[in-house]
TrEMBL record:
Annotated coiled-coil segments of the chain: none
Protein name as it appears in the record: Glycoside hydrolase
Record family assignment: Belongs to the glycosyl hydrolase 25 family.
Keyword terms, alphabetized: Glycosidase, Hydrolase, Membrane, Transmembrane, Transmembrane helix
Top-level taxonomic group: Bacteria
GO terms for MF: hydrolase activity
Annotated transmembrane regions: 12-35
SMART domains: Glyco_25 (SM00641)
UniProt keyword Endoplasmic reticulum, yes or no: no
Xref: PANTHER family: LYSOZYME
Length: 229
């Protein structure tokens, strides 16, 4: 009888501990969804694509965004919501920049021509952002010299069109594979949830601090970004 009683107490204790841990996990998850870096980072904003759906940009601005990057092209294709997002961000008075999601499965010249055709030169816009990461729809993995030469070609063409140096948004795994931040001297936009990234070869200028933040005006998680102080 004593053995069964002790067993019951132990089961009850384990259940209580499990409940406490589950509650703690829920609390941490809720906090993660609303987390943003401290006010030491004076300029904070987000980057979006058609995957984020229709956005209420005035609500986004009220939520604390100072700027927005809007995807214009991916590979050699137009982002379906670029024009709508581009115009709507301007209406709010927020700073705006255009981005391109690079593909290892398309020639750099074709991608640059697509971007330059779709995004008109705007001297008041933020520098163009070049997004570099691996994607499920492209399994090509060219050698580093080929990739770096192609990236330089894209950069030259787009910078000639926009009139300003672009910003390289590169994931840790892409940078490890191709050494982009070591070999291409452009401002770096690094990505790592919650903790400042340390993988780029040079100091980052922007940081994607969360890919799960929830804010009013957007249905679902967004990429939340900050500018280095």
């Amino acid at each position: 009888m004593v053995k069964y009683r002790l067993w019951g107490i132990r089961v009850g204790l384990y259940a209580t501990i499990a409940g406490v841990l589950a509650l703690a996990a829920i609390i941490l998850w809720v906090l993660a969804l609303s987390w943003r870096p401290t006010d030491r980072f004076a300029f904070q904003g987000l980057d979006v694509s058609a995957a984020n759906g229709e956005i209420d940009w005035f609500a986004v601005k009220r939520g604390g965004a100072d700027f927005a990057y809007v995807r214009a092209t991916a590979a050699d294709q137009r982002d379906p919501r670029f024009e709508a997002n581009w115009a709507a961000v301007a209406e709010t008075g927020m700073r705006r920049g255009a981005s391109h999601a690079y593909s290892l499965c398309r020639l750099a010249a074709d991608q640059a021509n697509a971007f330059n055709t779709i995004v008109a030169r705007d001297d008041g816009a933020l520098p163009t952002a070049l997004e570099l990461d691996f994607s499920d729809d492209c399994t090509a993995r060219p050698t580093a010299p080929i990739v770096l030469d192609e990236l330089r070609r894209f950069i030259t063409m787009v910078e000639s069109h926009t009139g300003k140096p672009l910003l390289i948004k590169v994931s840790k795994r892409f940078d490890a594979a191709y050494g982009v931040t070591l070999t291409i001297p452009r401002p770096v936009w690094a990505m790592q949830d919650f903790f400042p990234p340390d993988y780029p070869a040079r100091r980052w200028r922007m940081w994607q601090a969360s890919d799960m933040r929830r804010i009013d005006g957007v249905d679902g998680p967004v990429h939340w970004d900050v500018v280095a102080p």
